[in-house]
Automatic annotation (TrEMBL):
Annotated protein name in UniProt: Membrane protein
Similarity-based family: Belongs to the EamA transporter family.
GO CC term (a single one): membrane
Species lineage: Bacteria, Bacillati, Actinomycetota, Actinomycetes, Kitasatosporales
Pfam families noted in UniProt: EamA
UniProt entry tagged with the keyword Heme: no
Listed InterPro entries: EamA_dom, EmrE-like
Transmembrane stretches, start-end: 6-23, 30-54, 60-82, 89-108, 114-132, 144-163, 169-195, 207-229, 241-263, 270-288
Species name: Streptomyces showdoensis
Domain EamA: 3-130, 144-287
The entry's keywords: Membrane, Transmembrane, Transmembrane helix
Matches recorded under SUPFAM superfamilies: Multidrug resistance efflux transporter EmrE (SSF103481)
Length: 289
């Protein structure tokens, strides 16, 4: 079940990233983050009320609060890095956040078998290649690399924190709700500051609010897919080795690349295709090891 939940996580995160990437071509990134997460809060709030999950409130929810603070900060650092330096470098580096939950799992006593260790190495290498690293071309700004590493650490920290935020299914609903409320509070505060400093929350020109309303279903999908991914990852980490769950969940860049190929007709470079193949080989080793 660990492999199944973790692969579901990679699928959901990959689709959420693809959808979010498309939306940020039309709207400011902060607007996409805040609105999509606010819609997720409404759905999760309903689930919490329907299941009585609030009865499981306890100290573990501080892990969810921490994940809610770290997540938006990591996303903002990632977007800034994408603006500064070639996406072919930034995207693969961003996937290195898997090191954080893997390290936590090893510290907590996870001991994967030999085949699984091999699968971890092959899968991580495949994910990096699947991002299409640019080995030649313009030099990368040091700030872009630093911001990407900050974002990667943040993404990995969220994975580690949300896995510790609950011990039951209803507790997980509550933890995800708290995480999303914190996301909206932090992201909303950042959006407000951005507007105060001359930034914009809606597209330039008329009809900005109508444009947002027109894509509410897409925004809801991005928010709910991200929530569901956090939930399936937490279930995967609770049911098996965190090291295995984290690496399988980190395959989401492959999903994003395939979605871009299928929907936007973007052609995969040879290095990306090779990376996707290696990631699948690593997945098989992890699942069967």
């Amino acid at each position: 079940m660990t492999a199944l939940f973790a692969l579901a996580t990679s699928l959901l995160w990959g689709l959420a990233d693809f959808g979010g990437g498309l939306l940020t071509r039309r709207f400011p990134a902060l607007t996409v983050v805040v609105v999509s997460q606010a819609l997720a809060v409404l759905v999760l709030g309903t689930v919490v009320l329907a299941t009585g999950a609030w009865h499981e409130a306890g100290p573990l929810l501080w892990y969810a609060v921490a994940a809610g603070v770290v997540g938006p900060a990591a996303m903002l650092a990632f977007y800034k890095a994408l603006a500064l330096g070639p996406m072919g470098v930034v995207s693969p580096l961003g996937s290195l956040g898997v090191v954080v939950p893997v390290s936590v799992g090893l510290l907590l006593g996870d001991r994967p078998g030999l085949a699984q260790f091999a699968g971890i190495g092959v899968a991580v290498f495949g994910v990096v290649l699947a991002g299409g690293p640019e080995l030649r071309g313009a030099p990368v700004q040091r700030q872009a690399v630093l911001l990407t590493l900050v974002a990667a650490f943040g993404f990995g920290a969220v994975m580690a924190l949300i896995a510790e935020a609950s011990t039951t299914l209803t507790g997980l609903f509550l933890a995800l709700f708290v995480q999303r409320v914190t996301n909206v509070a932090v992201g909303g505060g950042a959006l407000w500051l951005s507007v105060r400093r001359g930034g914009r929350a809606l597209p330039e020109g008329g009809g900005g609010l109508r444009a947002v309303l027109a894509v509410l279903p897409a925004l809801a999908f991005v928010g709910l897919a991200d929530v569901a991914a956090n939930g399936t990852y937490a279930l995967a980490a609770q049911r098996g080795p965190v090291t295995v769950a984290a690496v399988l969940a980190s395959l989401y860049p492959v999903v994003t690349a395939v979605a871009a190929r299928g929907v936007l007709k973007e052609r995969l470079r040879a290095v990306q295709a090779a990376g996707a193949g290696l990631a699948l080989v690593g997945t098989v080793l992890l699942a069967t090891g």
